[in-house]
Structures are given as C-alpha cells and as structure tokens.
C-alpha cells in the first residue's frame, strides 16, 4: 500500500451545505466574492425542503416587533439571547422582501379585509398571524427558487460530486477549507480563505425523524474538531405531529394544521390539550410533544389522532393541498378521517456557537442555519422561526464576508492517504441503528438519570468500536458521518446530564423543576475535549 497525496485546489469562499441557509448565503456572497458551494444531491431532500409551515415575520400592520420578540422569549423558556431574538425579528421583513424579489410564490390573500397582500397563518406559540407561506410547501418553494438563481450565477461554482468529511486548519488554528471525498472515495482538499458550514442539525441521531435524509450533526463535529464551542445540545426539538406510518417514509404534518383549527385526540377519543394548557393545540411544541407522548403511554397506542374533518373539504383542500395529496397517496383521506400522528425528532436548538454574523470562535469559520447556535431559540424553537433564522443570519454573514480578508498564506500539513479496504456498508448501518436506538430510548422527549447514564456507557462503547474501524478502514462518507454522529450523541448526553433542571425541550422527571428562582439559567457549553474528561 503506497501513500498518495490528496488533490488540492484553491477557493475564495467555501460554503458547505445547500439548504435555504447555504443557498441564501451563496447568492449574497457572490455579489462581491467567488463562491464554491459543496452541495450533494441529498441536500434537495434535507430539512429545508420539508419545512411546510412557513416563515415567521412581522408583516401585518396589526403585528409588531415587540410582540414577535415576546412570543419567541416565552417559547425559549428563559434561555434565549434577547439581543439575538430582537436582531432576528427586526431583520425579518427585509429578508421576506428579498425572497419576494426573487419570485418565491407565496400564497396571496385575496379576501377584501386583507391588510397584507399575502396570506398569513398562525402557529404554536405565536400570538398573531405572522407566518407567510407558499400553500403548505414553503420550504420546497423557497429552495427551488433559490436553486434556480444559484445555478445561473457566474460567481458560484457548485460541487455536487463531493461530500465534506472534515475541516482544514493551518498552524495558527485558522480554518482553511475542507477535506472532501469524491464519488470514487478519493480525498480532495479544498483550501479556502473563508469557510461557512450550512450542514443542518442533528435529528438523524434519532430513530424517528421528520426528514427522509436527516443530518446527524456532521458540521457541528467538524467545527468541534477545530476547537469550536458547541452550545445547548440537550435541546433537541421533537415535532409533535409526524405522520404515523411504520411502513412508509417520514412525513411532517405541518403545525399550520393545528394553527387552522386541527384538534388532537387520544386513541380512546379524548381531546387532551385544552386541560393541559390554555393555548390548547397551539401551545409551544415542547408542551404538545410531551402531552402526546404521555397520552401514548397512557393508552399504550403508538400514535394519537389529529383531526381536521370539522374544517370541511373546501378549507382542507385550500390550506393543505400537499398534505392532503400525500396522505391520499398513503391511503388516508384527511377530509373524512383523522390523521395518525407521532412526535419525531425535528430540529436542533443547539449547535456551533456563533455571533450575529455567523462567526464561530475559530477564525475564518462561520456557521449559519440549523448547524449554528445563535441564541434565538433558547430551550425551545418557536414554529417557523427556523427559516427566518436561515435567511437573517445568512444575509448577515454575507455582509461580513464581503469585507473579510483571507488569511495570509500559512503552510498546511502535508496530508497523505493509504489504500485500505472499504468497511462493509451493512456494518456501518448496524452501528448507526444502534446509536439511534440508544438515543431514542434514553435521550428523547423524556429523559431520566438512569437512562442518561446507560446511554453514556453504551455510546462510549460504540464510539470505541467505530474509532477502531476508522483507523483501519479506507475513507468513506458513511463511516465519517457515523463517527461525527456518535461523538455528537455522546456530547448531547453529557449536556443533558449536566442540566439539573427541566426546561423547554429538556424534561427530566428526576429534576422536574426550573433552576431555583433568582438564579439565571445558563446555556450549556461543551468542546470536543470534554469527552475525554
């Protein structure tokens, strides 16, 4: 086996990930610098495309910034960074205007009483109608529009033949690009002046998710390998209503369904939300998800019912054409029968700690979208603030990159690779299934001390097995993704064990209350080195 050097190429701004955050960033940066966008084909099926509900922004004359800020702070259960919340909310209308200028086909409101040209719906946690949407497939509409513009930009080079597996650092520990694998498994090093991660969240750590191709925190761990700080990993949001169909692919039932009047019932016919929260089905997602989980345990059923039949066929067809058509294809007519739903891993409120311009603690490394922790979401993300965050921070990051200067040339270590045998795909998949089962059983909607301890022990054992394979096997995208995922799962468990309270998405009956009154709750902060302690 003879050592070989990976192919190296020089780039100006390298963007890794091509969902709404990555595409928005690329388009804005391309106005002043050249962009290389590493965007595998699977990004088309990532979280952005499946964002059905819409984008939260203050657009109606009856709404205001203070109200949106207040709603977000309540949903975040005391852990939001108010500076980040206000910044995001105030930048929202400009981001929507930009999307409209690109031609995103948002649903218009033709009613005579409309105070805004486009229809605004309401979702959980919001005190007003402020969700602009494209029917019930907003993510797809935004993603397709952005892709069209990116593909025609002369300043953007798309590399859909590469998958990033790690980042590069120079002697001063500044980020200098990424290590990638091409379709033949050959290493390529993309050296860059500035690198931006837009790789998505970590719902892929769990068995049931709302996306067919969920990220597993790969970008978070790539940044952590360079020393970046990760924050609030314990706050993994479970969307309350994913279609329950064990034999079919995941499919999200948008929060807008409840926003327009959908009602939740247990399988024995009890409407349970009104007695738990005055907001009923429109309570924040953490409350609704825990309520559904409790009803499933009470009845022994694998799901609950979400009923919209009382809205009438005309309203259902008008508001939810995509959901209705999809359910019909799966043998369910939602105009005549309730929808079986179950909570599923949906959104990571934690991630790479960044400032308001997406900058991380590692020089020349930025992060935008779900991979980042901005402080907007706190302990629980409010509905439809996610695409808003993608847009606002991508635009802010691009403004910083427009005036950023690439670091002076500094030598990088000379990398070599040795031909080794490929690890069996089945073995990698078995390890991933084991990890997901551990996380789903012990670190999901409700966690307990004993379960977290068991998860820590089992994941540590799994980590040793995977690492041994990493040393012996040839570079492989699936194996690299698993290695990132297992270590992020361990850090998530560590964060959950350290938080000795229940707050937002983190609920532990062994410490069921908030931190004692008078004490300010703190975000959790972890680095990769913490796994060694």
Overview of the structural elements:
- Belongs to the FAD-dependent oxidoreductase 2 family. NadB subfamily.
- It is an enzyme of class 1 (oxidoreductase).
- It catalyses: L-aspartate + O2 = iminosuccinate + H2O2.
- One of its GO terms (molecular function) is L-aspartate oxidase activity.
- Residues 432-513 form the Fumarate reductase/succinate dehydrogenase flavoprotein-like C-terminal domain.
- This protein has 533 residues and is of the alpha/beta class.
- It has three domains: 8-235 and 347-402, 3-Layer(bba) Sandwich (FAD/NAD(P)-binding domain); 242-345, Succinate dehydrogenase/fumarate reductase flavoprotein, catalytic domain (Flavocytochrome C3, Chain A, domain 1); 421-532, Fumarate reductase/succinate dehydrogenase flavoprotein-like, C-terminal domain (Methane Monooxygenase Hydroxylase, Chain G, domain 1), CATH 1.20.58.
- The protein has 13 helices and 20 strands.
- Strands 2, 3, 7, 8, 9, 10 and 17 form a seven-stranded mixed β-sheet that branches. The chain has a four-stranded mixed β-sheet with strand order 18-16-11-20, covered by helices on one side.
- Helix 1 links the parallel strand 2 and strand 3.
- Helix 11 (425-442) runs antiparallel to helix 12 and helix 12 (449-472) packs antiparallel against helix 13.
- It is globular, with a radius of gyration of 22 Å.
- 53% of the residues are buried.
- The model has no long low-confidence stretch (mean pLDDT 93).
């Amino acid at each position: 086996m003879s050592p070989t050097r990976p192919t190296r190429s020089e780039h100006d701004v390298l963007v890794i990930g091509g969902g709404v955050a990555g595409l928005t960033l690329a388009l804005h940066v391309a106005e002043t610098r050249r962009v290389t966008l590493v965007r595998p084909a699977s990004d088309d099926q990532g979280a952005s495309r499946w964002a059905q509900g819409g984008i939260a922004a203050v657009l109606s004359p009856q709404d205001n910034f203070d109200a949106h800020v207040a709603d977000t702070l309540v949903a975040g259960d005391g852990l939001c960074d108010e500076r980040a919340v206000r910044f995001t909310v105030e930048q929202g209308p400009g981001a929507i205007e930009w999307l409209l200028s690109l031609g995103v086909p948002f649903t218009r409101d033709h009613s005579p009483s409309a105070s805004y040209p486009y229809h605004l719906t309401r979702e959980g946690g919001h005190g007003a109608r402020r969700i602009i949407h494209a029917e019930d497939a907003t993510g797809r509409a935004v993603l397709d529009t952005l892709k069209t513009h990116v593909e025609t930009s002369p300043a953007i080079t798309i590399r859909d033949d590469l998958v990033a597996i790690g980042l590069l650092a120079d002697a001063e520990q500044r980020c200098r690009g990424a290590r990638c694998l091409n379709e033949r498994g050959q290493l390529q090093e993309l050296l860059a002046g500035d690198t931006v991660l837009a790789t998505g969240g970590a719902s892929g750590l769990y068995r049931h998710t709302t996306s067919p191709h969920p990220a597993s925190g790969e970008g978070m761990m790539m940044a952590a390998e360079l020393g970046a700080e990760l924050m609030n990993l314990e706050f993994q949001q479970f969307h309350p209503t994913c279609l329950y169909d064990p034999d079919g692919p995941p499919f999200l039932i948008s929060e807008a369904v409840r926003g327009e009047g959908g009602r939740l019932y247990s399988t024995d016919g009890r409407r349970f939300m009104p007695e738990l929260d005055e907001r009923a089905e429109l309570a924040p997602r953490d409350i609704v998800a825990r309520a559904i989980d409790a009803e499933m345990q009470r009845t022994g059923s694998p799901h609950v019912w979400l009923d919209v039949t009382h809205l009438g066929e005309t309203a259902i067809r008008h508001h939810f054409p995509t959901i209705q058509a999809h359910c019909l294809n799966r043998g369910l007519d939602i105009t005549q029968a309730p929808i079986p739903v179950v909570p599923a891993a949906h959104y990571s409120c934690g991630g790479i700690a960044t400032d308001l311009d997406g900058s991380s603690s590692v020089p020349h490394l930025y992060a935008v979208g779900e991979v980042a922790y901005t402080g907007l979401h706190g302990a629980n993300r409010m509905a439809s603030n996610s695409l808003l965050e993608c847009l606002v921070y991508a635009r802010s990051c691009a403004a910083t990159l427009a005036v950023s200067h690439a670091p002076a040339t500094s030598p990088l270590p000379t990398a070599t690779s040795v031909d080794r045998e490929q690890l069996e795909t089945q073995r990698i998949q078995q390890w991933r299934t084991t990890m997901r089962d551990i996380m789903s059983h012990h670190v999901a909607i409700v966690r307990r001390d004993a379960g977290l301890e068991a998860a820590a022990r089992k994941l540590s054992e799994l980590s040793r097995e995977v690492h041994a394979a990493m040393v012996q096997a040839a570079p492989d995208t699936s194996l690299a993704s698993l290695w990132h995922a297992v270590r992020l799962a361990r850090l998530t468990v560590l964060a959950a064990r350290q938080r000795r309270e229940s707050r937002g998405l983190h609920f532990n009956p062994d410490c069921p209350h908030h931190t004692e009154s008078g004490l300010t709750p703190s975000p959790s902060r972890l680095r990769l080195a913490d796994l060694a302690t």
